[in-house]
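Box 3.1 A note on notation
Throughout this textbook, protein chains are presented in two layers. The first layer is the amino acid sequence; the second is a token string describing backbone geometry. Keep the layers aligned when reading.
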Amino acid sequence: MERLREFLLKYLETQYGISKVVKDCAERVLVKLEKGSICLKIENKVEVEELKKSLAVGTKDEIRPLIFDGEDLYIQKYFVYQTRILKKIKELLDDKKIHIITGGPGTGKTTSLAAILKNELEKRILLAAPTGKAALRMQESLAKQGIKLEAKTLHRLLGYKHLSVNFKQTKDNPLEADIIAIDECSMIDLPMMSKLLEAVPSNCDLYLLGDKNQLASVEAGSVFADICKKFERGHKGNENIYKELTVNYRAKNAPGIAVLSKQILEGSVNNFNNENVNYFENDKFESELFSWYKDLFSMQAKNEALEFLKTFQILCATKAGKNGTKYINKKLCDIAKKENAKFTPIIITENNYQQNLFNGDVGVKDNEHAYFYVGENEIKAFPALTLPAHDPAFAITIHKSQGSEYERVAVVYPVRENEEEREGENETILTKELLYTAVTRAKKECFICGAKEVLVNSCGKGIDRVSGIK
């Protein structure tokens, strides 16, 4: 990212002769973008004047590398994405065709959608989610309520084009649907949300479902949370447009998880132990690794091994350090080898459209094949040698767990906040949204491991991403 930043700044200097002040503003907006914000607020009067007279900077109706709109400075491409989102939302709102359903796990988002779809099954309905796991879960949840429709990944829905950032379905070639419902919308970044909304045809009802308090997308933007804030201000009380679900129906099975997740968001956690949550220090954590996975190590049937993956998962805040995915996966791979385990879990790390395997898909692998669920109970085998890039998945990052749920999870935080930086990894910001997302992946039981001070500090920090979606 740093090399790309240097290239863009050099381009602005050579092509537009930008001043030192404009270069500093441009560098700051690029750093903000790398950290997830869409724009940079400029309040210094000298900077404002320099930006206004620079040839590299345009207003909202001009095509320049940088756009200065009101007090906000943008990279032009991201300003265009944001403008398209706001325009499409206004069109859908004017036609009463956009519907937001937000709430935490177990609050009935999918149940609310099912109640709507049951009366509309004669219409053309499209379902999708950002990842294969999330799409499969959406499909399974709706099937349990009598809605037997396929849910696709967003890339499949929009029509992936080989070696292109664009899709087949666009504003000029929209999706053919009367109803489109998208789950796990908090995972959708700004460019993808723009492309999705552009492909929604006129006279189509769009349902966006998600948890506004969950982690934002890995790439730029916290689009769903921003849209929810916008709708809260203007449409709270009109449940046809904005519906926020607050009653956790799953809480009766695991009240401790519901209590802790609420405390994390409020920043009021003083104890990480309760009836469904167990906190323990680092030294005990390593001794638990074998007991958590011993059942998988002894399994001989692929369907049993795949079912096990629904019951337990280690979720790490970081990749690096002794409490990161790399170390824990190596440790458990060594144990699996020693135990002569037939199956080990893997996670796909790049999209392969020919095989229909996507970044974040989790399966199991033996010596010759890998196995993944491709439907509610349908298992597909892939020759191990033909698999796209993948990693062991005894432990995965919290980011990769979005869109999934498990009976039990072990949430692993670093011993020191800057541990991943010391080992050369990209900075992972330990926020309340990160911890909330991890804890709420568990349906029945949650183990938490890591330095208590780091966990408590995480609860006091929120995601701070700036955008013009207001």
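DSSP finds 17 helices and 20 strands in the chain. The radius of gyration is 23 Å.
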